[in-house]
Structures are given as C-alpha cells and as structure tokens.
Amino acid sequence: MEKFEHEYNAEQIQVLEGLEAVRKRPGMYIGSVSIRGLHHLVYEIVDNSVDEALAGYCTEINIIIEPGNIICVKDNGRGIPIDIHPKTKISAAETVYTVLHAGGKFGGDSGYKVSGGLHGVGASVVNALSEWTEVTIQRDGGIYAMRFERGKTVKSLERIGDSKETGTQVRFFADGTIFETLEYEYEVLENRFREMAFLTKGLKIILEDTRGETPRKAEFCFEGGLRSFVEYLNKNKEKLHKDPIYIEKNGDIPVEISIQYTSAYSENIYTFVNNINTIEGGTHLEGFKRALTKVFNDYARSKNILKEKDGNLQGDDIREGITAVISVKVKEPQFEGQTKTKLGNSEVTGVVQSMVNESLANFLEENPNVAKAILEKCISASRAREAARKARELVRRKSALESTTLPGKLADCSSKNPEECEVYIVEGDSAGGSAKQGRDRKFQAILPLWGKMLNVEKARADKIYGNDKLNPVILAVGAGIGSDFDITKIRYGKVIIMADADVDGAHIRTLLLTFFFRYMRPLIENGNVFLAQPPLYKLSKKGMTDRYCYTDEDLEQAYKELEEKGIGRDQLGLQRYKGLGEMNPEQLWETTMNPETRILVKVTMDDAMSADETFSLLMGDEVGPRRDFIQANAKYVKNLDI
Ligand code: 0RA
C-alpha cells in the first residue's frame, strides 16, 4: 500500500490535465523530441539550480550522466521549500514538479527567474516527459524525498533522514516512448555547461559521464566571467591587446560585456538574455553596436586620428576582428524572430548603449595604446572596404556586360522558385559530372568546386569577391556577402555541401562552413545550409537490390538483418566507397540526392561555430595552439595537409 493516497480535487485534476497536455504535445514545450529536446530536459533542471546560484545561495552544481542514461543534478542551494501549500494541500516542492509553470510562484517577490532554456518551461515539464523522477531535498535539518512516474506522484514528499546540509538533487530517466533517442551526447552538454559557467561568474559546474568504461569529467568555474569567455573564444587567435575589456553594471537591467580585438577579419559577437543565447541578436546587440561605433568615432576625432576631411568609420569597420560577449538580464524578455531568439524589449537598447558609451570612452582614455591598436585596424578595414566596393562594382559591371551573373561551372535547375530549389556544392570535377547527370534538373542545381580553397581566415571581403573559388558560390547563392547579404535574394532554399567522407572532404566542408558562418551567417541561422551524407558502404548480391550503409553501425545492422533472411556475410559483396567519384550517376542519385531516400543533415549555428573554431585553429596565425591541436588529434588528422 502506498503511504500517501491522493484525493483528486479540482485543482489536482487541472494539474494532471496540464501535464497530460505536455505529454501529448511535447514539441510545444521543449521544441522537439529529438536529441535536442532530450538535452533540453537537462538544461531545464540545471537552470533551476543556476537560478538558486544567481539568488546567491548556491555555489556548486553537479551533473552526472549515469549508466542507462539517467541524469542526476545536485546543487548545494537552500533546497526547494517543503512547506504545505494552503490551497492545494501539497508541499511546495511537489507543486513545483506537478504544476505547469509553477516555478517562480513561491517565495513571493523574492526575485525573478532569470536563467532558463530556450523555452524556460521548468521542472514539471521534465517530470511529465520522464519515465520517472526522484527529488531529494536537504533542508531544515532533514532529508526529504518524493517520486513521480510520467508526471504523476507515486510518493509524496516524505522525511527519510536527518541532515545538516542543504541542497536539492533531481534524478530522472527520460521517457523512451516520447524521445527519439535517450543517448545523451557528452560533448553537447559539456559545451552548454561551460557556457553556463562563463555566464555565471564564480559558479562551479561539474559534469561527469559514468556511462562508458572510461568515465569523463569536466569542471568549470570562471572567476573572470565573460572575460574568461572571451579569452576562451580567442584562445587560438592573435590578440591586438592582452586583456579583454570588461564592463559590468548591476542596475535594473544588469548588463555584463567583454570585448577583445584580434587580428582576424571576422566579427564574433555572442549575445545572451537570461543566459539564453540570442543568436538572432536584438535590442541589446543594437545598443552595443551603436555605442561602439559612436565611441570609436568620437575618440578618433578627438585625438585627430580621423581628420576633418575624413568620413566616419562605419560600424562594420569598427567590428572587424572583434570578439565580444554581451549578457543582459531582463525581467520580462520578449523573444521574436524566426527561432524566437531575438530580444525585442526596446528599453534594453538605451541601457546597453549608454553604459557602453560611458565605460568604453573611459577605457579608451585610460588605455591609449589599446585604443591606437584597435583604431589602426579599423582604419585599414575601412580602406579595404572601399577597395572591396570597387572590386564589387567591377564584378557587377563585368557581369552586366556578359549579360549573365551566374558562374560558368554552375549547372542550374529549371525552376526559379527558391523554395523548391537546391544547389549541391560538389567537391571535384568527376563527382560534379556524376551529380549533373544523376540530378533532377527541375529543382537541383550543381556547382562543382575543385582544388584548394582560399584561406578566408587571411582574406578580407575584397579578396573574396575576386576569388575564383568563392565567387561562384556567392554568385550562385545570389544574395551577396557580409553586410550586403540579403536572405530574401537567395536563389536556392537548400544549399547542400556534398564532399567525400575523408580528410580532404572534411577540409572542404570546414572551409565552406566557415565561409558561410563568416560571410553568409543568416543562411545558417535560417536553416538553409545542409550536409549531404554519401554512403560509406554498398552490400550487393546477385538477385538482391543493392543495400547502402551510411555508418559502421548501419553496416552491422544490415549484416544482421540479412543474416536473419538466411544471407550470410560470405555471400555478400562489400564495397567501401572512398569518394563520391566512385559512384555512377544513378547510384549518386539514389543514395545521396533523391529527396525520398537521401539523408541530409541541417547545419546549426553550433556546427558552424565549432567549424569556425577549428578553422581559426588550423588556418590562423597562432602557431602554438595549432601544434597542440595536431598533436592531440594526431590519430584523426594524419593526412591533413596544412
Ligand atoms: C528557496 C526558495 C525558492 C526556491 C528554492 C529555495 C530553490 C529551488 C530550487 C530548484 C533547484 N534547486 C533549488 N534550490 C532552491 C523559491 C524561490 C521562488 O520561487 O521565487
């Protein structure tokens, strides 16, 4: 017999219906039921502990991925309150886990929830979507525990022991009938928790993975906050000044910003609202950019670095080579944009702007050498921009004369409707030939690329327009680059990179992704960039349709299934594809290009960001980190010719 039998009153029934709704439409609450949604469960639980840290009561959070993909999150905060709610007659702790959006309702105006995943939905959603959840609370001298299954209480909060400590521990096992996979990816969680630790100065976050034979562990704690974040982002880059610039203001809308310039040509500004990555930017970014442009122009004028006859430096020039992280805390954030990651609150612009105006102007006055180094770079960026404009006009004029703006190598499709059109960027002429023959020419265009790519790390926009490898890509996509890029002009809804599964293929993929990341970022943000997945193997036998396998696991699975049909391994021919060039047009169509059967992987900002990171490392100016990387990854990058 259960010790606690529930009587369901009206409120309780509402509760159950609430969590039932979550189980019926999980996507509405956590975005998706893919691995992304699965990771989201962990973020939701950790966010609650981060809130406790932001309130000043928690200094350490431990996250363990246990064998069987059970997640355990433990913090040393005050412990979730356990007092009985006068209306529902159940404990506050149980309410938090069973009532939708209960978080933040307790403790009066003790503060507001600031952290929160993309959806910020709270513990009850995690509970609803887990096969089981166990919560253990230490507070008021005791240890208390409760348990739920698929969101329903099976054991109400009960005192199970004594303790002098305080804190909250949540263990849960996600529901396999809801999620596509239950296998957490350690690296994804590691990246997110590193980011969280950067964003919450001084908070120690420990992540452990005890699933495999060799347990993994990472410990993050950054006293420098965003300063450490910027140092981390720039670790492989050549810096223009030693210490990142750091400004912080804890007013009504707390703002924390760190900036460091590098000798690179790209602009890397990351913005966060309540610890959520606002990849589409918004009003905080707007305020920052305005202030940055104004402060540097004012400074350059006042020091006579810009003469009276000179025009103002443009924002793009001032942001060349910048790495910056902006973090704001907003009580009622409004998220807009395609992916709801653009801050809409208009009051934030002015707050960020005036704070940066004041602090950055002071900083430049106090650090004239840093100011000089940055401004020299801005001025040369400005000259390059002028040269780029001329180069671009030349290209435009030339193409007007030739009466076509499309590159000669492009085999275009017949449809002109971008929504249905796709372009395959194919490495190598021979694979390009097969792709041209195998494609559906109505909606599939082929652009072959060959030879070595331009090193975009060391090139400015003027070089890129003139580059014979990248110019065809720019013209084919048809929407310009950099600040001229206009997503409404893209000629294809899908831009698909098709490269071999070997080191050279990886090289070209990294190069193209980096190029898109730096010069056509909205294309990635908008979800228009994809990676084609050519098969690694073909299994064949007389009288049997060929079977293609895309991974080693796929191959094992195929062997198993065929064995069950009485076909042994020894009867099967196995071909390992070394390159796209080995497939004939029909095979290429069937395995990699036919929308009915192919596998496409959508490139996310995370993918592009790490490609960019790898790229800076391999192509940039800093020799030390590159050597370290190659030594650490020697077994993976044996053939990489750098
Ligand atoms: C005291 C008061 C409140 C929450 C907590 C402690 C608390 C909650 C969690 C969740 C995970 N770990 C935790 N540690 C402490 C209520 C504050 C409010 O809702 O405004």
3D structure, described in words:
This protein is α+β, with helices and mostly antiparallel strands. It has three domains: 20-220, Heat Shock Protein 90, CATH 3.30.565.10; 226-385, Ribosomal Protein S5, domain 2, CATH 3.30.230.10; 404-534 and 602-636, Rossmann fold (3-Layer(aba) Sandwich). The protein is 38% helix and 20% strand. The protein has 20 helices and 23 strands. The strands form five sheets. An eight-stranded mixed beta sheet has the order 5-4-3-6-2-1-7-8. A five-stranded mixed beta sheet has the order 9-10-13-11-12, with helices on both faces. A hairpin with a 3-residue loop joins strand 1 and strand 2 (70-75). Helix 3 packs parallel to helix 6 (186-199), helix 8 packs parallel to helix 10 (347-366) and helix 15 (503-519) packs across helix 19 (605-619). The longest helix is centred in the middle third of the chain and has 35 residues, at 368-402. The structure holds 3-[3-(1H-pyrrolo[2,3-b]pyridin-5-yl)phenyl]propanoic acid.
